[in-house]
Amino acid sequence: MNPIELGPIEIARGVHWIGALDPDLREFDIILKTANGTTYNAYCVRGSDGVAVIDTVKENRAADFFARLEQVAAYDEIKAIVLNHLEPDHTGALPELMRRAPNARLYISIKAQIMLKGLLKSEELVYTPARTGDTVSLGDRHLRFLHTPFLHWPDTQCTWLEEDGILFSGDVFGCHYCDPRLFNDKVGDFRFSFEYYYQHIMRPFREHVLDALELIEPLALNLIAPAHGPILRDAPANYVRRYRQLAEPTLYNEAGGHAKTLLVFYLSSYGNTARMAQAVRDGAEAIDGVRVSVYDLQGGEVAPFVDLVEEADGIVFGSPTINGDAVKPVWDLLSSLTMVNVKEKLGAAFGSYGWSGEAVTMLEDRMRGLKLRVPVKGVRVKLIPTEAELSLCHAFGRDLALHLTGQATRKVITMEELNRSQTHA
Asked: How much is the pTM?
């Protein structure tokens, strides 16, 4: 079916999908591949006392949006325009919609106000900031707002149509999957797209996902209408449960619930960094309440380790210095950590070197850039570690474990020591 030929679709009595299809899109926001294109979902809700439009579409699909809207409502009927998220793929038609519907009040989340002014480049905007529990009356229907920040921008919210049990969820529970049949029980198998979308869009904000689920799970859901992908009318609660499964930590129970977890990743050219890794492990395990796991990056793919890092309390990287740099598998794993929240996790580095030994400090700098805390200076060993140097690695692991368990003694660094460390860096 030609996307332009598709008319508005009624998803419930008096509630229509008026969005746009983009089947040929193959990349979204640079980071996402979209093998099946995407949809820009927008909705029109009719009540006894007016009409609400929920979200708009990408600017280059605005004509489709307005054509569908005009088939189900007149512009002077529009009482409310609700934006669940201000990213351009949801707000591209907003300026023109506000011009055509001058009687409409714009509703955005409390955190979206600065973003809205930046989006429309106007200081003369009339809008209402909404908090959780605020409502808009359409007469016999009521919209209630749920503040769900950082899913995946600070401004995001969900909108609940109380009388019909419909959740207009914004990006939450969405995916990039275009199929003109629209509904999850009619379209092709989109499970891969649903999981892929979560991993790349929602996973870095897992704590905020869990907060949002606390608001959403008590709702008597009849239908979830996301901003992208299929409309979830068949067993919508299953998708909420899947989000819970994806967001809940699992290592907690395996680790006994109270043990701190420390992961040691290394790659070794001649076995020297490997010997250091074992000493670091032995030192960390000497402290009660710490569970240590050691992984040789030469023997495995990087992607599965991201799951472990997400749930760990501390991460240590061991790398030799080759051509003035850390080795590629270590950088690959560090690059993958942008998918998860590693802020305030403990980080550290160590490694053997032959000439210059920059790898350790380079890894420490990258970890600080990812917002890990690096409280213990890394250990560098020239070529084959001696027993004394292995003892230093053992002490290094022990210090890391003490920091993990909150037993480390605070050290006051003098300005003289700080200047000396910067001079030798």
From this structure: 0.76
The CA-atom distances, in angstroms, between 47 and each of 58, 66, 130 are: 26, 20, 20
Task: Say if residues 332 and 304 touch (Cβ distance below 8 Å).
Answer: no
- Domain holding 283, by residue range, is 252-424
Task: Respond yes or no on whether the N-terminal peptide bond of residue 200 is cis (omega within 30° of 0).
Answer: no
pLDDT along the chain (425 residues), means of 10: 74 97 84 88 98 96 97 97 94 94 95 82 79 97 97 94 97 96 95 92 91 97 98 97 87 62 94 96 96 89 85 95 92 91 94 91 96 95 95 97 88 51 44
Same domain, 27 and 84: yes
Angle, nearest 10°, between helix axes 272-285 and 387-404? 40
How many angstroms separate the CA atoms of 424 and 61, rounded? 57
In the block, which residue shows the tokens 């299953």?
A: 238
Is 266 in the same domain as 358?
Answer: yes
Three-state DSSP at 102 gives: coil
SS3 call for 47: strand
The DSSP secondary structure of 358-419, one letter per residue, reads -HHHHHHHHHHHTT-B--S--EEEESSPPHHHHHHHHHHHHHHHHHHTT-PPP-PPPHHHHH
For residue 36, give both structure tokens. Answer: 């099946």
Same structural domain for residues 287 and 341? Answer: yes
- Are 181 and 162 spatial neighbours (Cβ–Cβ below 8 Å)? no
